[in-house]
Amino acid sequence: MATAQPATRLLDDSFLRFLPAPLREPRRAWLAILTGWLLSLAGSIALAAIVGSIAPEMAKPDFKGISGVTALFLLVVFSPLLESLIMGGVLVLLQRFLRPAAAVITSAALWGIAHSLGALSWGFTIWWPFLIFSTLFVIWRQRGFWTGVGVAAAAHALQNLGPGLVVAGYI
């Protein structure tokens, strides 16, 4: 019976070593999720403020047509899970050709581009959270694909909770 390889800190030899240790090591999922959420939220708020001050007329995401429990479910449960599954599959593929840090950056850029198709300002602000979610997936995938998806999706769900509550009409 083969023994499991110990998890490694895959990003310590890259420019992503500036990220806090809980994001770069698969040790405590709750701390990685909390740290990932706080970092992704702070970054996206800062980027949204910058984009809003530089180009206030730039198109923003439009969630008209959904509200209440449906909006909350779609934004806090369905989207984070679906996007984490897609992201995980793309990252597994990217890592066949790229080092982990390059795969993370490429994934974040692709998600920024994808969200720009809905609203240009969204793409400029969303790449940072997806850098964090991609990092979480790559690191926690060492514990298993579904573990990587779960940790990334949990941080993503927390990221979407505030906006989800606003879109749902609860705030």
In short:
This protein has helices spanning 21-24, 29-54, 68-97, 100-116, 120-140, 145-168. With 171 residues, it is mainly alpha-helical. Helix 2 crosses helix 6.
Detailed description of the structure:
There is one protein chain. With 171 residues, this protein is an all-alpha fold. Helix content is 71%, strand content 0%. The protein is built from 6 helices and no strands. The protein has helices at residues 21-24, 29-54, 68-97, 100-116, 120-140, 145-168. The longest helix has 30 residues, at 68-97. The protein starts with 20 loop residues before the first helix and ends with a helix. The model has no long low-confidence stretch (mean pLDDT 92).
What distance separates the N and C termini? 54 Å
* Percent helix: over 70%
Strand content: under 5%
Low-confidence stretches: none
Rg from alpha-carbon coordinates: 16 Å
Main beta-sheet annotation: none
Helical run tally: 6
Please name the defining characteristics of this protein.
single chain; 171 residues; mainly alpha; 6 helices; 0% strand; globular
What's the topology here?
Layout: H1 21-24, H2 29-54, H3 68-97, H4 100-116, H5 120-140, H6 145-168
Helix pairs in contact: 2-5, 2-6, 3-4, 3-5, 3-6, 4-5, 5-6
